[in-house]
Amino acid sequence: MKLITHNMLTSNIIKGVTKGYPLGIIPRKVEVKDVDYNPEFLARMIPNMDWSAVCKAAKDVGHDEGLPKEIAPNFTENDEFLKAAHHVLLEIDVVEGDLVCPETGRKFPVSNGVPNMLLKEEEA
Amino acid sequence: MSASSRTCRYLLYFANEHIEFKIAELKSLASLYNIKLDLHEACIDKKDPFLVVDLPSEDGAIQIMSRTLLVRSAYELWGQGKSHEEMYRNLAAFHTDRMAPYFSANTTFKIMVESFNKTITQKEKVQRIEELPQDILKFEGKVNLKNPVHIFTLMEYYGHVGTTPPDKPLAVYFGRWICDGQRDKISYFNLQKRHFIANTTMDPGLSLIMSNLARVKQNSLVFDPFVGTGSLLVSAAHHGAYIIGTDIDYLLLHAKSKPSRARQKKRASDESVQANFGQYRLESQYLDVLVADASCHKLWRPMIHFDAIITDPPYGIREGAKRVGKDAEDEEKSSLQDEFPKRIPRLRDYHLSDIFLDLLDFSAKHLQMHGRLVYWLPVDRLDYKEENLPSHPCLQLIANCEQVLNSKVSRRLITMEKVREFQENGGMTARVEVDHYQDATFRERYFRPTNLTNDEDN
């Protein structure tokens, strides 16, 4: 699971949960993969990202070093920022671990890079 | 005004396949590239593979051809008629300034002859070329059959496939070939060569058409809530999209389900949705797949908006019928379930109508403005009526194309566009006037015997 995807997910699917964002990450295996750099795509996506959640997730997986704490002004022309965003959002892959609901502590396991967001009948 | 900026007439030569989809695909691609396209749809005979269109420029034709699966080739139309003679007269009236550059002595060319619904011999073809009016077509360049700079084609139309061809063609066209469409991609994405497939993997031609109807483009964010092995998203990624998918089937996403290929006992350890993107060097556009229930919309932050949602919801025909008792296959399955005991919750029945209503509600919330939803709706052909189509106040129906599966059932490819912002508590929910699946599930309808075959026998 890439951190761009993590940024989109909530645990508000659990019955009664309203503040299920951002999900915590307990990493067990994290890989860094080469992904083609595409500043146009990043410039499209960044305005919809919750950047504080990006920073928190990066910290959870131990890849927050040198990551800007805020979205740079004029980020579409800021290559340095876009490259940092590219790396953290697209190249860091949580292969094994858990996603954690911030409200209930319910864990959603990630295995082979695929998060399992299914709930039991009584949880939904 | 220069010759190149003048609106001109183009001939599109369609493939004789998926003809129900061809106008919808053409209109979607024209709107994707902001190309003005006036079609008199009521006058279009879908079984006629030739369509004459006015386009603002040749560049527009090239853009459409860079994406279309259903147009074989595009030509600048120089002449047309209901007979060769009428075509020649029409040709005489074509702008000489448009023709002149191609007559230059410094260039090379060849002339081809094509016929639809009739085979004509090589001798007849040569005769047709010799009969062309040389006082209008003043070719001075050299003929080069192998590698010409310009190709001209004389096309003859002898009626619908399967009808007895008349002696004389019903229509004749002469044009300058511009380029071909993307039909070669069908074999490029051939499923026999696909690393990871399952029983309901979409054929590559149709999945590329779906991506065209959805107007997927470079840097689109595209979602499939019933992703399966990712075939629809492979097509979207080929068109430049970044993709995310979910599926409720844990075993499938982890490639632990029963293999779909004959003679394959076990899935290979490297089979995965991601591997299918790697196979086509599209891995940089693969974001993620998740095991998730498509009816749980709150999984996504409210402000997440996809440019397109493309999906083939499950309607339960090809899932094997359940069997009583335990055999080797069941043992294998139960051992897999022991391996992931907590991860596979009991799946409840998901009523087919609810799947579609959920899908429309989700799309209304999570599509960008003017983003498109493209999905398949299976129907009983005898009972189907427009009232069976789910609707939503935020979504406008763009196209509804039928693919016939057999005499009883078909599936309809539905294209909708978000035209209104979704408001929570605004009473904006999907509805269906008449539930098509109320009396029987689609599976029951699919396997229900009918009298049709008997009637045919009599």
From TrEMBL, chain A:
Molecular functions (GO terms): protein heterodimerization activity
GO biological process: rRNA (guanine-N7)-methylation; tRNA methylation
Matches recorded under CDD domains: Trm112-like
Pfam families: Trm112p (PF03966)
InterPro entries: Trm112, Trm112-like
Family to which this protein belongs: Belongs to the TRM112 family.
Protein name: Multifunctional methyltransferase subunit TRM112-like protein
Organism of origin: Potamilus streckersoni
UniProtKB/TrEMBL annotation, chain B:
GO cellular component, one term: tRNA methyltransferase complex
Pfam family, one: UPF0020
Top-level taxon in the UniProt lineage: Eukaryota
Enzyme category, top tier: transferase
Catalytic activity: guanosine(10) in tRNA + S-adenosyl-L-methionine = N(2)-methylguanosine(10) in tRNA + S-adenosyl-L-homocysteine + H(+)
Domain Ribosomal RNA large subunit methyltransferase K/L-like methyltransferase positions: 193-325
GO MF, any single term: tRNA (guanine(10)-N2)-methyltransferase activity
E.C. number: 2.1.1.214
InterPro entries hit by this protein: DNA_methylase_N6_adenine_CS, RlmKL-like_Mtase, SAM-dependent_MTases_sf, TRMT11, TRMT11_N
Any GO BP: tRNA processing
Record's subcellular location: Cytoplasm
Keywords of this entry: Cytoplasm, Methyltransferase, RNA-binding, S-adenosyl-L-methionine, Transferase, tRNA processing, tRNA-binding
Domain tRNA (guanine(10)-N(2))-methyltransferase TRMT11 N-terminal, residue spans: 9-183
Family membership: Belongs to the class I-like SAM-binding methyltransferase superfamily. TRM11 methyltransferase family.
Quaternary structure (record): Part of the heterodimeric TRMT11-TRM112 methyltransferase complex; this complex forms an active tRNA methyltransferase, where TRMT112 acts as an activator of the catalytic subunit TRMT11.
Function description: Catalytic subunit of the TRMT11-TRM112 methyltransferase complex, that specifically mediates the S-adenosyl-L-methionine-dependent N(2)-methylation of guanosine nucleotide at position 10 (m2G10) in tRNAs. This is one of the major tRNA (guanine-N(2))-methyltransferases.
Protein name as annotated: tRNA (guanine(10)-N(2))-methyltransferase TRMT11
Organism: Potamilus streckersoni
Upper taxonomic lineage: Eukaryota, Metazoa, Spiralia, Lophotrochozoa, Mollusca
